[in-house]
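JOB MANIFEST
job_type = single_chain_structure
chain_count = 1
residues = 92
[input]
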Amino acid sequence: MNRRPGQRLLFEPGLIPPPGCLLDWRDNQHFDRWQDLPCTLCEQPTPMRSHYGEPVHKACAEDWISTHPTEARLGRFASDVQTKRRRDDDHA
């Protein structure tokens, strides 16, 4: 996975969703409860962080993946690593 210069991986990313699909950001490490920073894509304040700690709204990251499908494959934004679900855990 390629990183931007100066970026460090804060926690393990999972798969990159196809353009038009949603990111699965369930890990609480995506949320900074202490500080809102300007989103790197829309510049509006956000408590959300990517796996690299980059401040970004989840919706902005999903839009970016859709509009930059080739660059998206480099892993700037990715879903969380998915743990195996139990068979009886089928609630929505």
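[summary]
The first strand starts at residue 37 and ends at 38.
The beta strands are 37-38, 45-46.
exit_status = 0
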